[in-house]
Amino acid sequence: MKLALIGFGQAGGKIVDKFVEYDSEKNTDIVRAAVAVNTAKADLMGLEHIPENNRVLIGQSRVKGHGVGADNELGAEIAEEDIDEVQGAIDSIPVHEVDAFLVIAGLGGGTGSGGSPVLAKHLKRIYTEPVYGLGILPGSDEGGIYTLNAARSFQTFVREVDNLLVFDNDAWRKTGESVSSGYEEINEEIVKRFGILFGAGEVEEGGEIAESVVDSSEIINTLTGGGVSTVGYAREEVESPSNNSSGGGLLSRLTGDDDDDQLDTAHTTNRITSLVRKAALGRLTLPCEIDGAERALLVMAGPPAHLNRKGIERGRKWLEEQTGSMEVRGGDYPVRGSGFVASVILLSGVTNVPRIKELQQVAIEAQDNIDEIREESEDNLNDLIQDDDDELESLF
Amino acid sequence: MTTTSWNHSSRLYAVLAVCLLLAAAVAPAAAVSVGETDVPDSAAVGSEVSVTIQLTELYREPSLEEWELAGSTELENPTWTVVFFDQTGSKIGQESFGGQEFSGATVAASDDIDQIEVQLRGTVPSVTEYTYDPHQRFTAATLEQVPPGGGSNELASEEVPYFTEDSQSARSALDAAASAIENAGNPNEASSTFDLAVNAYESGNFDNARQLAQEAQNQAERAQQQDNRNQLILMGVGALLVVGLVAGGFLYWRSQQDSNDRLG
Ligand SMILES: Nc1nc2c(ncn2[C@@H]2O[C@H](COP(=O)(O)OP(=O)(O)OP(=O)(O)O)[C@@H](O)[C@H]2O)c(=O)[nH]1
Ligand SMILES: [Mg+2]
Q1: Do B260 and A25 touch (CB under 8 A)?
Q2: Residue B152 and residue B37 share a domain
Q3: How many domains is chain B partitioned into structurally?
Q4: What is the pLDDT of residues A297-340, one digit of tens each?
């Protein structure tokens, strides 16, 4: 499926940058256009793969290219004021070739947190293509203001997009790692999962399209209906057909006729069902109870010889049972020559997400604290400035 | 003899030739020509050798109707025979002399003398000074024209390399060492041993010279082997490098395959 990616803020820009790299390296043809928007000039300059013309600096008159300093209200204001500049970059995108927009932002900061819901709203008003969001939640150790920003942005962002895919930094944080190298790895994980998910709808040229292959409409249908989505992933290394020196393997590779019987069918099936379980029960991009998810999509990716319908069907059924959803789609994503079989599960419309409740709780506390502290410090300031018996008079 | 010394002496000859040509152009040289000469290439000390020198064009430049022929040699117990021929090539007389110097053979046009052949026999003298390069020589014969008014013009001078059995075997060893050293690309150690060998040779210390020459040769050959070995090692290293590059390239290719793997 072809996407127009828009990264808002630093985190959003970096992830889109990684996405572009992945797309060209793996030749997946997902990224039809990539734009980065920021209030901080330095963040835009740090990008490597997004074309310079597609880097939009907004709010120059307000913050002089220095960012909004985690003030997401200011971020939202600036986005609104300068939406035409963002639109200018989007105008260069051949939107008719795009299946959907994906707006990516870290929700804990200022620029992306405030600006991405504004942009989503704007895009939805102008285009008929679906507008999805990918929101990054802050780590719980980042502090009250980030949590508060994220909670408020999350609420708004969900409302403005057709579906909000969520990635929780907190669930992926590793202890004892420098923040920047930590993000580098985290961003790779993000791109890997969403790359496979959206890559599934983009069938290789020349590859015959089997009925069972996932297409863009299945991804879109799973996301339609809105709400919050999370993604699970698991993979296993397999003997790739290109390492298989037997005549049969070579022949089947040449004719494109991968013979399932050659591999142990039962083994293949078992591997698939086990990968489905691992993906669903393992670490999700947003940890949650999968029970109650409204819709789900199972994508089994790998060399065709290692995929089979029976396995995918079993996995799909298992997902239906686990989620209680009647809308579970499943299909395969043939990746010739890969050394892995991977399962990616998109759970859409999840509702049982303790992490969001916790985030909101902490945010409310933070908000109260902030108000309290503000009042308190106002009092304190007055105490400081005013002489005890109010004998002094101000100049004018 | 090393090529270097050959080059050296050939250059010397060239310079000499140019000088002679210049001299011929500027001053009226003795016009008496040296015709056929028969001189040994080299001679062993104590051996009996003979030397023959022909002289023609006897009366030109300076145009003398009559003069005397004188000669000297370092050959021991020499006998000189001066044979006179007329214009038809017929022998018209001869004179004999003993001793390392002779003079007083009268050459006169009026006697119909048109050509002279000087024949000399004698014993090769012992060596006064050994030199390796150029080869030590002795003067086999010098012929001079003595005009009636006195003075003299040198007509011919023949020098012959000479040797003893000992000196010759030392020289062979030196020659062998020199060519080994040159083949090895003049390695330092061998070259300086060779210089010592030459010193020994030139002071007549032939055993020593032979030993040193042999050592120089060994050193040169070892150096060359080392060189060859180094070259082999270099080639081996080169081959390893190529293998490494190929293997590295393959691994890189593999890793690229991996990084191209959408699921990798
Ligand atoms: N996954 C991921 N999260 C990031 C990255 N960089 C920052 N974040 C998260 O994003 C939040 C900060 O948002 P940023 O994108 O840095 O902020 P911004 O949108 O540039 O806004 P300002 O800097 O305040 O102008 C924090 O909660 C971080 O946890 C990144 O490279 N990857
Ligand atoms: Mg920033």
Answers
A1: yes
A2: yes
A3: 2
A4: 999 999 999 999 999 999 999 999 999 999 999 999 999 889 99
The answer to whether residue B85 is domain-embedded is yes
A68 lines ligand 1 (CB under 6 A): yes
Would you list the domain boundaries of chain A?
A: 3-199, 226-348
Distance from the alpha carbon of residue A110 to the mean position of ligand 1, in angstroms: 8
Return the ligand 1 atom nearest residue A105 CA.
15
The vertex-A31 CA angle with A27 and A37, nearest 5°, equals 140
Question: In sequence order, what are the residues at sequence separation of 6 or more whose Cβ sits closer than 8 angstroms to the Cβ of residue A8?
Answer: A37, A38, A79, A103, A104, A105, A111, A112, A115, A116, A119
Tracing tokens 């913050």 back to the chain, one arrives at A63
What is the mean predicted confidence (pLDDT) over A251-270? 63
Query: How do residues A212-250 score in pLDDT, each as one tens digit?
Result: 889 999 999 999 999 999 999 999 998 755 444 444 444
Residue B26 has pLDDT above 60, yes or no: no
Burial class (CB in 10 A: 0-12, 13-18, 19+), A356: buried
* Contact (CB<8Å) B263/A25: no
Residue B63 Cα distances to A272, B29, B31, angstroms: 124, 11, 9
Q: Who's near B27: CB < 8 A, 6+ residues apart? A: none
Fold of A3-199: Rossmann fold (3.40.50)
Provide the percentage of residues in chain A whose pLDDT is more than 90: 71
CA torsion A183-A186-A187-A193 (nearest 10°) is: -170
Calculated CA dihedral for residues A338, A343, A348, A352, nearest 10 degrees: -140
Q: What is the mean pLDDT of residues A65-85?
A: 95
Is the minimum CB–CB distance between A241 and chain B shorter than 8 Å?
no
B148 and B209 assigned to the same domain? no
Question: Of all helices (H) and strands (E), which one includes residue A370?
Answer: helix A354-385
CA-based nearest distance A40→chain B, Å: 32
* Nearest-by-CA chain B residue for A198: B262
Phi, psi of A331 (to 5 degrees): -175, 180
Residue B264 near chain A (CB below 8 Å): yes
pLDDT for the residue numbered A373? 87
> At A7, is the secondary structure helix, strand, or coil?
strand
Rounded to 5°, angle at Cα A345 from A342 and A349: 170
Q: Is the CB of A112 under 6 A from ligand 1?
A: yes
Determine the Cα–Cα distance for residues A189 and A169; give it in Å rounded to an integer: 11
Residue nearest to atom 10 of ligand 1 (CA): A106
Does the CB of B88 have a partner CB in chain A at under 8 Å? Answer: no
**Last residue in a domain, options B163, B197, B222:** B163
Chains A, B: CB contacts under 8 A, how many?
35
The partner residue sitting opposite B263, judged by closest CB among A27, A242, A342, is A342
**Predicted-assembly ipTM surpassing the 0.85 threshold:** no
Are B133 and B62 found together in one domain? yes
Indicate the average pLDDT of chain B.
87
Residue B189's domain comprises 167-246
B104: left (phi over 0), alpha (psi -120 to 50) or beta: left
Radius of gyration of chain B (CA): 31
pLDDT at position B227: 85
Greater pLDDT, B259 or A348: A348
pLDDT in tens, A77-131: 999 999 999 999 999 888 999 999 999 999 999 999 999 999 999 999 999 999 9
Q: Which of the listed CATH numbers 1.20.210.10, 3.90.1170.30, 3.30.1330.20, 3.20.20.80 matches domain A226-348?
A: 3.30.1330.20
Q: What is the average pLDDT across B197-207?
A: 94
